[in-house]
Specification:
heterodimer, A: 384 residues, D-Maltodextrin-Binding Protein, domain 2, 2 domains, 11 strands, 16% strand, B: 285 residues, MetI-like fold
């Protein structure tokens, strides 16, 4: 099972002992479901926006439990937002929606979010299961940072816009171990035996190991992939790796069952608030960076979704989101906006990475993400 | 009127059966046929084509027989452990608990008002390396300083045993409760020792409960994946984990479907062999 356990603040609840796991949903793989579309595919802006996102991946007011940026959007545009925290895992969510989408049916959602280090953004675009954005309605697209302007699955950003980005590195618990700053140490230091985890997401764990092998994750051929898979497999065989996880590493890491984990940046920033003994670093051979992207599925209302995307690309709104969820914003000017009210967060390089950090971060070869042999081999490394 | 019903009487059982049969047809036969159809496809997602690809089955067995064997070993050990734990427990409740019977039965069932997942997650805390159980075992030198319970074979089998205990306990309780006390008195009158009375009266009369309990435990346990997922490591993954990952992670529907059939067939064979050994009349009491 993948990061089907959730993201972000939920990690903190996980640390408190409550983890969420979505049930098998084997039936979901059979597709089906209702055929209701989310609204007009073209034409008028609808009264309601149905937005599917990862759990607790948006600002929430602790007292009122309302979501201020969504409320402000409704006040401004008169569009009510139904916000569904229903994506726990790229593959699993894709398995759920691919049935209706492959039949040309809507899924009653106007926006959903997929991560670029999975094969699904490419599949969605290639299969024609997502619609083009109405860029006329998104003048704020000019605020998209240059690094995100041309991803391989959507070179002209015709179908997608980034929601947030995040980094994959190593987190460790200082009560249990000294610094763990390389994959070599994580996978091969006998002192950490049985006390480390890696992420189930192929691009995260294999990507970091490819870097540790001195190979380039941007060009992954079979040799490069197998060298990394072999190295991880050996660490499973020796008992070094205890488990592969979604972000359910949090509970065990803060509790001291684990010494170190391959971990996502935003998660650890959240955990740090309650656990000052946690540390997170980009491994010395380099870290991975990934981006969650908003898409408009078949049947979704393009004008409504585009109106919302324009809204979150206002720097002031992006600043509020970044401050609340601690991942990396793709919006220019958000940092300057945030510096006015919260200088400390604005200077956190894990939320606003500086150039020095960015040079250490790598993206996984998008063409290799869809390699069925790699996917099968990876499942075998996971014991599945 | 009377003669109408009289003549139609032969139809009544079928009319009564029809909702159940329709249910089975729609929710069992049709999905099963669809699963069989999926299992014979070839290609890669999203374009699978039906090609009578029987090699899906042979490849699935050759790639995943370790997980398949492991599932049956784990399920078998857990079933025996459930029997050993449940029998004395419900024996005591049935014969010794008196008016507290229902309370104790409720105590067996009560944890199961909580969802399966949460119950299993609770074991993460109970068995944690820094938790009290491991601490006590290390202090008493049952476990070595570096040894652990969580993420071991023991934890997975213990989790399965815990989760399926009521499925073993309740059928045995029902068969024990129905035993006529006068049969035991008669055994005593005929100079049977308590052990002999148990072995020759109580145990045979509770056999239907034992058979039902073992089947109700073993069958779902063999397909379980939550315990291996949460309490195990990659070395403890069961066939349920593989099927789950094939369906939802790699979107490899043909392999997932053929593995599902292989699991079903293997369970069927195991159950038939078991029924043959214990005698099928025990299944129905």
């Amino acid at each position: 099972m993948n990061p089907r356990l959730t993201r972000n603040q939920l990690v903190r609840r996980g640390a408190a002992g409550l983890t969420v796991l979505s049930l098998p949903g084997l039936l979901a793989a059979c597709g089906g479901g209702d055929d209701g579309g989310g609204g007009d595919s073209s034409g008028e802006v609808a009264k309601v926006l149905n937005f599917a996102n990862w759990p607790l991946y948006i600002d929430v007011d602790d007292q009122t439990k309302r979501r201020p940026t969504l409320d402000a959007f409704t006040a401004k545009t008169d569009i009510k937002v139904n916000y569904f925290e229903e994506i726990n895992d790229n593959a699993e969510y894709f398995a759920k929606v691919q049935g209706p989408l492959s039949q040309g049916q809507g899924i009653d959602r106007d926006i959903f979010v997929f991560t670029d280090n999975s094969r699904f953004p490419g599949l969605l675009v290639d299969q024609g299961w997502v619609q083009k954005l109405d860029k006329e309605l998104i003048p704020n697209i000019s605020n998209l940072i240059d690094a995100q302007a041309s991803p391989p699955f959507d070179p002209n950003r015709e179908y997608s816009l980034p929601w947030q980005s995040g980094m994959t590195g190593i987190a460790w618990n200082e009560d249990v171990t000294g610094p763990v700053e390389s994959i070599e140490q994580l996978l091969e230091d006998p002192k950490l035996k049985g006390k480390v985890t890696m992420l189930m997401e192929l691009a995260d764990s294999v990507g970091l190991t490819i870097l540790a092998n001195g190979d380039d994750p941007a060009t992954v051929d079979d040799d490069v992939f197998n060298r990394a898979a072999d190295r991880i497999q050996a660490a499973v065989g020796s008992g070094q790796i205890r488990r592969f996880t979604g972000n359910d590493y949090a509970q065990a890491l803060t509790g001291g069952d684990l010494a170190a984990s391959v971990a996502w940046s935003g998660d650890v920033i959240q955990l740090l608030l309650d656990n000052p003994n946690l540390k997170w670093a980009v491994p010395k051979d380099g870290g991975m960076i990934w981006t969650d992207n908003m898409f408009i599925p078949t049947g979704g209302s393009v004008p409504t979704a585009s109106t919302y995307m324009n809204y979150v690309y206002e720097p002031a709104v992006a600043a509020k989101l970044a401050a609340a969820i601690n991942y990396v914003t793709p919006v220019k000017g958000a940092r300057e906006e945030l510096a006015k009210s919260d200088a400390k967060t604005a200077n956190n390089t894990l939320i606003f990475p500086d150039d020095e950090l960015l040079t250490q971060l790598h993206q996984y070869d998008s063409a290799a993400l869809n390699n069925q042999e790699h996917i099968t081999r990876w499942q075998q490394v996971l014991g599945q | 009127m009377g003669s109408f019903f009289h003549r139609r009487k032969g139809l009544v059982p079928y009319l009564l059966l029809s909702p159940g049969l329709a249910w089975l047809a729609i929710f069992f036969i049709v999905p099963l046929a669809y699963l069989g159809y999926q299992s014979l496809k070839s290609g890669i997602f999203p374009t699978y084509e039906f090609t009578w690809e029987f090699s899906n089955y042979t490849e699935a067995v050759s790639d995943y027989h370790p997980q398949l064997v492991r599932s049956f070993v784990y399920a078998g050990i857990a079933t025996v452990a459930c029997l050993v734990l449940a029998y004395p427990l419900v024996y005591w409740i049935a014969f010794r608990a008196g008016r507290w019977r229902n309370l104790f039965l409720l105590a067996i069932v009560a944890p199961f008002f909580v969802t399966y997942l949460i119950r299993t997650l609770a074991w993460l805390n109970i068995l944690a390396d820094e938790g009290p159980v491991v601490g006590l075992l290390q202090w008493t030198h049952v476990l070595g300083e570096d040894e652990r319970l969580l993420a071991t074979t023991f934890a997975v089998i213990a989790g399965i045993t815990y989760n399926f205990l009521p499925f073993m306990a309740l059928p045995i309780y029902v068969s024990l409760e129905q035993i006529e006390p006068r049969l035991l008195e008669a055994a005593k009158d005929l100079y049977a020792s308590p052990v002999q009375a148990f072995l020759r009266v109580t145990l045979p009369l509770s056999a239907p409960g034992i058979v039902a309990g073992t089947l109700l435990t073993f069958i779902p346990a063999a397909g379980d994946f939550i315990n291996a997922e949460l309490l195990g490591t990659p070395k403890q993954q069961m066939i349920g984990n593989v099927i789950q990952a094939k369906f939802l992670e790699s979107l490899d529907y043909p392999t997932a479907a053929s593995l599902s059939f292989i699991l079903m067939a293997a369970i069927l064979v195991a159950v038939l062999a078991y029924a043959r050994v214990v005698g099928s009349e025990k299944l129905t009491g």
